[in-house]
Structures are given as C-alpha cells and as structure tokens.
C-alpha cells in the first residue's frame, strides 16, 4: 500500500489526487484509529482536530442515544425561549426550501441538545429518526465528531459526511451546521441540516449559513442593552437593516460587540476588536466640513477604491448616513432597527437582491404600523413569496398566514369563505357553520391575492371589516372582533379599475397608502446572473448540466411568466432528466426553443441582407433590416454587450454581429 503521509516516500499531491475520496477516508480512519497516527491531509483539518479531541471515546461501539424525558426537554426549551422564538420561523422556512433534498433541519442549544426538528424524516431508518429526535445530546463529548457538536466546539460552520463522523454508527448520515453567535462571541446554539450524505451539497451549507445569519441578526437586535449604541455599515445603503449589514455594539465609544459581517469587513477576530475605541476604526471629517457629522471607514480596513461606496449609520439617539459624495444626511430618529427578512420557502432564496430587501424592510415597517401593504406586479414575479417573507419577519410571525386567491374562488362562494356563516345559513352549509378565513387570520396576516378580481359587493363588506375590525358571519349571529394585518396583491392597475367603476374608490384609497412594485424578471439588470444562479441550484445540484446552446436559450428567454414560469421549467427538466445527463436544446420546452429560433431567424436575415444580390433600398429589405437590428440589439442587451455570447445565442458568426453592431453601418 502506498504511504500517503506527508513526508512519506510516496507522498505527493499527484498521488493523493488520483486516490478516490472514499478510499482516502478509509485510509485516514485506518491510520488514525488502527495505527494511532495522524490522518494528515486525507481529511479536512477541522475533522482531524475533532478526531483528536474525541480520542478517548470508543469509535465503534457506543449505546444508541435516548431522548430526554418530556419534562426535561420542556425545561430545556423554556430555558432557550428567546433563541427558539427567533429561530423557529427560519427553521420551518429552511425545511420547506430543502424538501426535495430529503433532509431534516435541527435546532440545538449551546450544549448540543436538540431542541426542535423540522422537515420529514420518513426517508430515515428507525435508528436515525430516534438519534435526531428533540432531546438527544449531540455534543462532541457524547457523540464524537459531528456537525452539531463540532460547530459548537469550534464556533465555526462545519460539514461532516459519512465516515468523517468519529462513530462508525453515524456513518450513514451527512450533516452541515453553523453556530449561532451572540455579539460578544458566545455561542447561543446551532442550526443543523442532516440527511443522506449525498444530499448535503455546497448549496445546502450556504442556505444553512444564510439562515443562521438571519437568526443571529434577529437575536442581536432584540437583546442590545439600553446603554449600548449600534454602528451599522454596508457597501450598499439598501443592505442597512438586512441580515447582511455589519454591526458594532458600542458603549462609551468602545466596541463591546460585533456580528460576523463586521468581523469580515474589518478583517479582525472578535478578540482583536473587543474594547477598541471606535475612533481607531472610523474617522470623522474635520469640524466645519459640510459633512462633519458623517463617519468614514479607515482606508486601511477596506479594499482599495471602495471608500466612497460604504455607508455608516448610528442607531439609537441619532443616526448618520454617509453618502458617496461625502455629504451627510442626519436623520433624527430614535427607533428600533427594522427586522430582517427571513428565508422564503420553495426556491425563494433565489428571488432576492438588495432592492427587494430594501422593499421588504420598508413594507415591514408599514405592516407593523397596522397599515395595509399592496403588492403590485405581473403574474409570477413572486407576490405571494414576498407576502410570506413579510409575515415571517413581522411582529405577527407567530400568528397564522391565511392566503386567499380572490380570482380562484367562485363568486358564489367567496363571501362565505371569507366571512364565514352560521349553521343552516344556506343549503349545503356545514352543520356547525364555518368561521371564515378572515377570522382564521386573527392574530396574523390575511393575504388577499388578485384583489382586483374581488366582486364589488364583497369589496364593501371588506371595507366594513377594515373599518370596524369585526366580522359578522352569513345567516346572522353575533359580530366577532378580529385583529389581523392586511396584505393585498394584484397584477392589475387598481386606479384604472376605479376609473372604470370595477373597484370601489373608498377601498382603493384605504389600500394604496403603501405599494410595493415587484419588477418583471426581464426588467432586472442582472437577470442573466439571477437566472444562472437558479439553474445552478435547481439543476446543477441535482447532477444535471446544460449544453452551451441550452444555457444561452434559458438565459436569453424573455420569460413572460417570470419566476413562476422559470421555476416550473426547471422542475420539469429535473423530473425528466437523469442525474449526470447533459440537457440539450431539444430537451427544452417549445416556448424556450421558439424564442431562440426567432432570434436566429432574424440574425439569418441579417446575413442574407448583406450578401450579393441583396434588395438594398427596397421596402422589404428595410423591414427586414429593422427586424434584424431589433433582434441583434435584444441579443446584445441580454448578453450585456458580449458579442461572442450573443453570437452563440443567435447561432451566427461573430463577424455578422460585429458588422451589424458597428457604428455607422449601412
């Protein structure tokens, strides 16, 4: 057998690269557990370090874990009430987003005890289900190397797959976890995803870390002491108030806390930053300067050329926002920071960008102030996803989210569905009556989708409910008080419907105080990058690849159905494709192929119009030329001006596009 130890006779990067990962892992275990030597580079350093810490445990035989008795588990949960309050919404959202991956999402306390689980465990064996139940201890001292215990010990994200676990009995599991850190660096708990090792992909780890950052952000802003100020900064002003902002906790001008984003921006560990004066990290402009109140990051703490694009702001007492022109805006407010957005479910982590986060934060302030939010946008842009994000981040997150599609419920039934009815109110009514969706939303959020399609009679009843905050069921009965926040959505222009007499003006004026306009997918300036990201997550992580032509067709398609159409096509391709297969143009839906064909036909006409015998000067040629130029402009815009990519998309030679795109061409 080859000696793969560092410094051994056969040790070389080439020899190691040719050894399959599974064999490397078996060699590492043999070396460590049988020979008592160091596994070297055969396993990640975090795994080797954990194995060394766990060396007093037997690697092959430990009793199967038993969950705590119910009373003890309830006591542990009560002790971590604040952690669970902020973490459980993200736990559920992450489980929904990872449903296709056949994994379970876990929340553990600072000692490694599982507190909560979300997701289906039907794919696991009975022993695995018991091992991952709430009440089971997964600390390193109890279960050896594993993602929960090792993340807690190292205070760092970690992934542990198969035989990387210290105990062989855990080798059928894969897990990835991130610790939840307080601003003082202490570990508050851990978020983990466990399942089949093949289902723990890089994207899974990224989603776990993102959800962990959201939980940390919520917890941090919920617990800051009254005598502490927070300094918030970010490259983009739109990131202020989101989980991606950098935060420093300051008391008496001295740093007493920081989040991970701040440590990353400043390039420091918490120990290096703790108890440093803020003025050592930030500078104020000289007195008398027009922007004397503003704060600027020290240049040596930033990448070259980035100084002008950072924003810093104080929260509590006063708030300063420094702009790229160095002119400060002073906003006199003493309000708590807005809550961060949570991870949307069902592919929604992809429908995210700084603009959307900014919209979400503003909508959140409005909704928490008991003001209705109206979401406008084309079909498929993610209006309901946005509404669910809003609910999960709002003060009503613990309450229900009740969604009603006003266009999908028959007009004869929508009144009884919304407002409920008493027993015997009409033929076919339930014996005990029905509370109605408005009452079901009590304490939470009522989401009325396509409210522009609500019948006029129901609009008047809805207006009455919004005014009186009570609902009276059909068939009489006593009025019931209701308390809900209202979010509405429509793809129609309600102002036009009001002008046409198809929507009540008084209801419109009650709903239009704050409107969120969600752009169409084709209008996004970075739509190709966003589409490519979704293709990677929905197809790439499932072992499917796209040929160059198929990828260009997907990236260049106009997607009139927006995100819903794109996600639907990806799901269909994923269902029909075999893992490891390369999908070609013929595998795509006809609508996507037709989009590419029309662009190619226009480009082909361009080539023909410039050849011998062309109909220069004729009306037919003028029409063809305008169509060709439009197709070329569209392709270049879709490819961000990249001639080579646009030529591949249109199926023509680059010289054709150079000729058509050249200034002053005939």
Q: How do the strands of the widest beta sheet line up side by side?
A: 2-1-5-4-3
Q: Work out the helicity level.
A: 25-40%
Q: What integer is the average pLDDT?
A: 76
Count the beta strands: 22
pLDDT < 50 stretches: 1-12, 284-311, 313-350, 424-433, 611-623
CATH homologous superfamily grouping of the largest domain: P-loop containing nucleotide triphosphate hydrolases
| Class based on secondary structure composition and strand pairing | alpha/beta
Which outline best applies?
A: globular
Number of H/I helices: 25
What is the makeup of the main sheet? 5 strands, antiparallel
From the 3D structure, determine the CATH topology of the largest domain.
Rossmann fold
Radius of gyration: 29 Å
Taking the alpha carbons of the first and last residues, their distance comes to 72 Å
What percentage of amino acids are in beta strands? Answer: 5-15%
CATH architecture of the largest domain: 3-Layer(aba) Sandwich
Number of domains: 4
Q: Which CATH first-tier class of the largest domain would you pick?
A: Alpha Beta
Spell out the blueprint of helices and strands.
Layout: H1 13-17, H2 21-34, H3 45-53, H4 70-79, H5 81-97, E1 103-108, E2 114-118, H6 126-131, H7 140-143, H8 147-154, E3 158-161, E4 174-181, E5 187-195, H9 202-222, E6 229-234, E7 246-251, E8 254-258, H10 260-266, H11 270-273, E9 282-284, E10 295-297, E11 311-315, E12 319-322, E13 328-331, H12 354-368, E14 373-376, H13 383-393, E15 401-405, H14 411-419, H15 437-440, E16 445-449, H16 456-468, E17 470-471, E18 480-481, E19 485-490, H17 494-499, H18 505-511, E20 515-517, H19 527-538, E21 545-546, H20 548-556, H21 562-576, E22 582-583, H22 590-609, H23 619-638, H24 643-650, H25 654-661
Parallel strand pairs: 14-19, 14-20, 15-16, 16-19, 21-22
Antiparallel strand pairs: 1-2, 1-5, 3-4, 4-5, 6-7, 6-11, 7-8, 9-10, 12-13, 17-18
Helix pairs in contact: 5-9, 12-13, 19-20, 19-21, 22-23, 23-24, 24-25
């Amino acid at each position: 057998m080859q000696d793969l130890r560092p410094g051994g006779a056969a040790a070389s990067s080439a020899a190691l690269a040719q050894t399959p990962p599974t064999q490397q892992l078996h060699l590492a275990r043999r070396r460590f557990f049988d020979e008592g030597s160091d596994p070297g580079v055969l396993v990640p350093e975090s795994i080797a370090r954990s194995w060394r810490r766990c060396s007093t445990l037997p690697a092959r035989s430990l009793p199967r874990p038993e969950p705590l008795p119910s009373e003890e588990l309830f006591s542990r949960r009560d002790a971590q009430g604040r952690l669970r309050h902020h973490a459980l919404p993200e736990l559920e959202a992450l489980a929904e987003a990872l449903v296709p991956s056949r994994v379970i999402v876990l929340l553990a306390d600072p000692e490694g005890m599982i507190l909560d689980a979300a997701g289906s465990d039907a794919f696991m064996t009975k022993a695995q289900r018991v091992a991952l139940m709430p009440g089971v201890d997964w600390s390193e001292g109890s279960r050896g190397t594993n993602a929960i215990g090792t993340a807690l010990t190292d205070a760092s994200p970690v992934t542990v797959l198969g035989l990387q676990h210290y105990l062989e009995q855990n080798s059928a599991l894969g897990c990835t976890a991130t610790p939840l850190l307080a601003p003082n660096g202490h570990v508050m708990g851990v978020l983990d995803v466990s399942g089949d090792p093949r289902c723990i992909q890089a994207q899974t780890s990224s989603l776990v870390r993102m959800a962990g950052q959201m939980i940390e952000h919520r917890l941090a802003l919920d617990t800051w002491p009254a005598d502490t100020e927070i300094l918030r900064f970010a490259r983009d002003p739109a990131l202020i108030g989101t989980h991606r902002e950098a935060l420093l906790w300051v008391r008496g001008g001295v740093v007493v806390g920081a989040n991970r984003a701040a440590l990353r921006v400043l390039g420091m560990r918490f120990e290096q930053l703790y108890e440093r004066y803020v003025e050592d990290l930030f500078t104020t402009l000289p007195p008398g300067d027009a922007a004397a109140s503003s704060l600027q990051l020290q240049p040596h703490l930033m990448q070259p050329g980035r100084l002008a694009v950072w924003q810093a702001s104080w929260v509590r007492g006063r708030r300063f926002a420094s702009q790229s022109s160095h002119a400060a805006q002073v906003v006199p407010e003493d309000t708590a920071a807005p809550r961060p957005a949570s991870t949307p479910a069902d592919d929604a982590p992809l429908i995210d960008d700084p603009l959307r986060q900014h919209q979400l934060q503003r909508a959140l302030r409005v909704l928490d102030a008991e003001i209705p939010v109206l979401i406008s946008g084309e079909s498929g842009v993610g209006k309901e996803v946005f509404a669910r994000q809003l609910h999960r981040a709002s003060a009503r997150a613990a309450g229900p989210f009740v969604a009603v599609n006003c266009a999908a419920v028959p007009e004869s039934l929508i009144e009884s569905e919304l407002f409920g009815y008493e027993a015997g109110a009409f033929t076919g009514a339930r014996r005990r009556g029905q509370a109605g969706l408005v009452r079901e939303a009590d304490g939470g959020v009522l989401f009325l989708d396509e409210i522009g399609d609500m019948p006029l009679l129901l609009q008047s009843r809805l207006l009455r409910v919004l005014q009186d905050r009570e609902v009276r069921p059909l068939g009489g009965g006593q009025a019931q008080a209701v308390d809900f926040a209202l979010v509405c959505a429509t793809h129609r222009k309600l102002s036009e419907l009001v002008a046409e007499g198809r929507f009540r003006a008084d209801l419109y004026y009650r709903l239009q105080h704050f409107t969120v306009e969600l752009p169409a997918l084709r209008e996004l300036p970075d739509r190709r990058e966003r589409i490519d990201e979704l293709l990677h997550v929905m197809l790439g992580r499932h072992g499917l690849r796209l040929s160059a032509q198929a990828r260009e067709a997907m990236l260049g398609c106009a997607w009139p159905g927006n995100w819903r159409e794109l996600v639907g096509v990806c799901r269909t391709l994923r269902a029909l494709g075999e893992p490891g297969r390369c999908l070609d143009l013929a595998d795509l839906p006809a609508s996507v192929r037709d989009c590419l064909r029309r662009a190619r036909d226009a480009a082909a006409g361009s080539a023909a119009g410039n050849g011998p015998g062309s109909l220069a000067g004729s009306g037919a040629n003028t029409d063809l030329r305008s169509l060709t130029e439009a197709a070329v402009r569209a392709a270049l815009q879709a490819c961000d001006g990249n001639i080579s990519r646009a030529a591949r998309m249109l199926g023509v030679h680059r010289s054709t596009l150079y000729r058509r795109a050249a200034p002053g061409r005939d």
